[in-house]
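Allow me, if you will, to draw on your knowledge of protein folds for a short while. The matter concerns a single protein, recorded as an amino acid sequence and a row of backbone structure tokens. Kindly check, if you would, that the fold set down in the tokens agrees with what the sequence suggests. You will find the record immediately after this paragraph.
***
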Amino acid sequence: MIKTIITIGVIIVLSLLGYNYFLGDAEEKAQSREIVGKAKDLGKDAWELLKSERTKMKEGKYDGTLKKLEGLYECLKDRAGELADSDAIDRISELTQRRNELEKVLKNAGGKLSGEGKRKLDDLTAETEELMNEMETESKTAPH
């Protein structure tokens, strides 16, 4: 029932955005284009961040990775809120918790991860990428 209400809410928001984007007055069109542009920019920036961090991680550089993931999760959480996607918000919270646990392990290990820690970090970034793919697909249903 709640999922249906959220789905209806998302459809209403996307419909309103689409209507304003194509049929609204000049101010509404500008506002809609700005929203769509921000969503595209956020997606591009997030992808670039994830790609660069994944490359660094594969090279063994973990020092800023977890901190940058924290910022990425905040952006994703905001985007999920805009999309009214409670499932994504829950998944982001779970990923954030796992990131926090890895940060504690990294601090306790003096900045170096064991093989198990590296695997967990790799899994975390892979699941983050998967979530971003899903959110990007969902946001593409919005009018461009």
